[in-house]
Structure formats: C-alpha cells, structure tokens
Amino acid sequence: MTKYRYLFLEALRASLFEEQLHIPNDITREDWEQLFKLASDQNVLPYITPSFLKEPAFIELCADYIPILRSNMMQALSYQSQNDQHFLHMYQFLSAKGLFPIVVKGIVCRSIIPNSELRISSDEDLYIPQGSYKAYKEALSELGMQLLPHSKEVEDSSYEVGYHLPNTAFQVEIHKGLFNKDSQAFRNMNHLFEDAFANAIIINCKGTNIRSMAPTDPLLFLILHALKHFLGGGFGIRLVADICMYALAYGSQIDWVQLHKRCLSSHSFIFAAGLFQIGKEYLGFDYEKACYPVFWQEQGPDDIEPLLDDLLDAGIFGASNMTRKHSANMTVQAYSSRGDGKPVTSGLLRSAFPPLAAMQHKYPMLKQHPALLPFAWLDRIAKYRKETAKHNPDNNAADSIKIGKQRIELMRKYGLID
C-alpha cells in the first residue's frame, strides 16, 4: 500500500475515534496532495481535515493549503448543519400528521460518530409502509417540497422517489421498498425486511425522536447497500466506516446468528466479513467491543487487500471514472445469473441488451409499450457513447469489459458468485 493511502486510512481512523494522528517522517508534499485527492474522491476530506490541520508535520509542508481546507471544512459544516435542521423539521412535521417513516442510513449513521456535521450526506432516506405514498406526497407538498426532476417520470413505477426543498440543498428519497423489485439481482432482498415496521425502534437525533429499524436490520441493510453499490461499480471506505461504527454502537443488541443467516441467503457473508476485517485492520473496529462473534472471524476471507484496493479505487459510489461505472452491467449480470449453470462470460450480451424488466426502471414507457424495447436499447447505447466521450474520450467498451472481468474475479474471491 502506498504511503498516502495508509496515511489517509489512519486519518479516517483518528477522526472516527478523536485520536491524534501520527504522521510518518517520510511523508512528502506530493503524498499530502494525493491524500487530498483520494479523500475528496471518497467524500471525507472535510471530515478528516481536523485530524491533521494543526499538526506541525503537516503545516511545515502544506501551510498554503490550510486556508483552502478550512474553507472547505466550513462549507461542509454549514451544508450538513442546515440539511440536518431541514430533515428534523420535516420529520417532526410528518409525525404531527401521524406519519412515522423509518429512517435508513444518513443521520442514523452520523448520529453515532463525532463531528457528524463534517460527514456529508447528499440526501436522507425514508422507508414508508406499502400503500402509504399518497399520504406522504400530500404531506411533503404541504411542507413545500417538490419532486426532483428525474423522479417526475417514474413517480408511480419506481421503488424510490426523490424530493427537494426549493432554494436549499436539502433532498430526501422516499423508499416504497428498500430494493428495486424489478431488479433480478436485488428484488429478493426486500423480504429480509418484512418485519421492519413491526419491530421498529425509536432513537433520538439532536433532540428529535425518529424511527429506525431494530438493531440487526440497519446493519444488514448497510451491508446489502454496500453490496448493491459494489455490483454497480463500487463504493468507498466511508460506507465501511458506517458499517463498523454502527456495529460498535449496537453490537450487543445485534443478532449475529440471524445476520449470518441473512447474509448467506444473499451470498454476501464472506463479503461482509471482509468489510469487518478491513475495519479491524485499518479503522479501529474492535471485535470485542462490538461483540463480533468468533465464527464470523473464523469464516472470513483470507485476504482483504484486493477488496480494500477496490474500495479506494472506486470513489464514493463507484463513480471514479465512467469506464468503471459502465462495467457494472457485467457485475450485476454475473450476480443475477449466479447458479444458473452458464459461464459468467455468457452475460456479456445480456449486459449490453438487458431484458425488458431491467430496462423499465429507466424507461418507464416500456411498461405500457414493451415493443419499444429495441429503441430503448439504442437510446441506452447512444447515451453510453455520449457520456464516455464527454468524461473521457479514451474510455471505451473494451476498457469496461476488461474492468468488468477483473471485478467479476473479485466477486468470486469474496463469495458473491461461484
């Protein structure tokens, strides 16, 4: 591992536990600049900045960066503080209407870490009971919130619908389901949370009572959320930190045996155990304090470095480059078709021309007009070529296939496919 990557992980660990960061003597200005780029790609630069901003070893090499980093940190603080206020006001408003959605991710994860206002979330996520969307839509409209442009066309068909508060940065996603029921890869995951509302608990965030799933369920959701993004191009180290810090906070209340069974049902156990091992090795995750069982420890992967490298290469949600994003067609297809007896390479054509059900989420008109599927394929290919040319003229389908094959081998290594 490079020096700057190791120092980045150390800075994140120090920030999560409010500990002093020890900076090696051989760190150069170039190392710091690479760390800034990595931390920015992983969307944690404001969060880790306090760990080194006042350290003499940093000031000596990068004093000219301090005003920029301070400004970046203050902007993040203002952004997240205002969004938290908007969210809590919205939740109180919904509660007064007799609506009690379950909060997933976001503020639930931030509430258990120090300096949470420096940990930026682009939106908040609310999980609502089936059949209740109309009531939520009316309440949010009364509050002045509006549908996001991309949600207007798919409001009725999509499992998630985005809203924003005009003239602010605040956004919220309303989840009719936690996973896309039209996706072959993820639709069976919803049944793992069938009792979420019956078993919901109340937690306090900044003086406001909000509903969360019972302790085992949020951890399972975070793991499956990581899996979803892993298949979709990748995810960053921040989500590993969320998983490990949640397990530390609620470990004694987590049913690790039940969690093991549910991870096995989605072929994600070795993958999940690998994330906890990364947490232990690099982020201060304490097995004993988290009540992390011995059988989880013993059945984990032999080598976590390839998974860690993938996380650090991926950016926040696999968006480090367009080639990587488009390779997701192969990884999602490989996971969807596991166990069907066909070689993984047989999914290449299917990833280029997905079936009707897989296309309906982005092309809702296909539900009424399935005969338009070939035209949707052509539109999808045209958008792919335009997008890759815009972001990187050197990106091409061959590069996506190469990365896709490499990541399929990674999936095999961590038990996601045979």
From TrEMBL:
GO molecular function, one term: transferase activity
One Pfam family here: NTP_transf_5
InterPro entries, sorted: NTP_transf_5
Keyword vocabulary terms for this entry: Transferase
Protein name as catalogued: Uncharacterized nucleotidyltransferase
Organism of derivation: Eubacterium oxidoreducens
Lineage, top ranks: Bacteria, Bacillati, Bacillota, Clostridia, Eubacteriales
